[in-house]
Design brief:
There is one protein chain. The protein has 303 residues and is an alpha/beta fold. It has a domain at 7-110 and 172-216 and 243-301. Helices cover 53% and strands 10% of the residues. The chain has helices spanning 7-13, 42-49, 66-74, 78-83, 112-125, 132-138, 142-148, 154-160, 170-183, 193-204, 228-237, 239-258, 260-277, 281-301, and strands spanning 14-16, 22-24, 31-35, 58-60, 86-89, 103-109, 184-189. Strands 4-5-3-6-7 form a five-stranded parallel sheet, with helices on both faces. Strands 1-2 form a two-stranded antiparallel ribbon. The longest helix is centred in the last third of the chain and has 21 residues, at 281-301.
Length: 303
């Protein structure tokens, strides 16, 4: 499934609304697989997705027990898999190989330095994270985390479907590039999140009626606060992710260029909606309702 179909394929995918604008035509039986790469605005996307599908049509990989949950998913009977329209969460590429229905992927990548910084400071603040107590007890610095942890080139490994804890290799990198180009309908960037959402809205016909940000790591330094040696260390240890992000950015630009007026319009609407929701009662209510829907979906996915 190419992330960037030809014009002839686009013509088949999109019909015309009464106003003459392009609208996505539903693909019968197609499932969507959202690969949630850690600390790439995936939690916000998860909460938005949960309003676009019925609870019985989604499977969410548990964010804490993700290894068990991803394995549980692959053991579900074909009938349950076939009725599921959205699979999402922390899992490796490759789920489409066991599904009885056709499927396409979406994901959001992030600048590797920003992602590593966000991940480290999130681990230090979230008590349920497996690394929390180790980081606190041993008082690791960001430099020690990069040097000692095997969590390097995370985006590359996940998109390639490779062992999360094994070293990254040129072959894994090439597999990740190939997968992004041939199996993903939308490759988003967290730095241009609203435009990424716009591409998904156009591709899948999502409504995106409400919009707020979730799980943002705020207590962390910015790149400008750190010495260049630290930034170079992160880039060097995540060189495959750096190259993959550059490839993803090229795919993203190509996709936006094909629908730029619509993407810009939707992105502006989403930015305005987020600005209006900041600190509002409506945003609080939406967050509470989203939390409830998330809990129900996680419980349903676990059975």
């Amino acid at each position: 499934m190419s992330a960037h179909p030809t014009d002839s394929v686009q013509a088949r995918e999109f019909g015309q609304s009464a106003a003459g604008s392009a609208v996505p035509a539903a693909r019968a039986g197609e499932a969507v697989i959202f690969l949630h790469l850690p600390k790439t605005a995936g939690t916000t996307l998860n909460r938005l997705i949960e309003w676009e599908y019925r609870l019985s049509e989604m499977y969410s990989v548990d964010p804490v027990l993700f290894e068990w949950s991803a394995a549980h998913l692959r053991k579900l009977p074909p009938r349950r898999l076939r009725q599921t329209r959205m699979f999402k969460g922390h899992m490796l590429f490759g789920l489409h190989e066991v599904l009885p229905q056709p499927a396409t992927y979406i994901t959001v990548l992030r600048d590797p330095v920003e992602r590593v910084l966000s991940a480290f400071y999130f681990m230090r603040s979230y008590k349920l994270h497996p690394f929390y107590w180790k980081l606190r007890r041993e008082k690791w610095t960001i430099e020690q985390f990069v040097e000692r942890s095997r969590r390097d080139n995370v985006q590359c490994k996940i998109v390639a479907g490779a062992d999360y804890n094994a070293p990254c290799t040129p072959e894994i990198f090439e597999n990740a590039k190939h997968n992004l180009s041939h199996h993903f309908s939308v490759v988003g960037l967290s730095e241009r999140f609203e435009e990424s959402l716009a591409l998904m809205k156009l591709r899948f016909g999502w409504e995106l009626k409400s919009y707020s940000s979730f799980n943002v790591t705020r207590s962390r330094p910015k790149q400008g606060d750190l010495p260049q040696s630290t930034l170079d260390l992160i880039k060097g240890s995540n060189s495959f992710d750096v190259a993959l992000y550059q490839h993803a950015a090229e795919l993203f630009e190509e996709a936006v260029d094909k629908q730029r007026p619509e993407v810009n319009r939707i992105a502006q609407d989403l930015k305005a909606a987020r600005a209006r929701s900041q600190g509002s009662l409506g945003a609080t209510i939406f967050s509470l309702r989203a939390a409830a829907r998330k809990a129900i979906n996680r419980a349903y996915s676990a059975v």
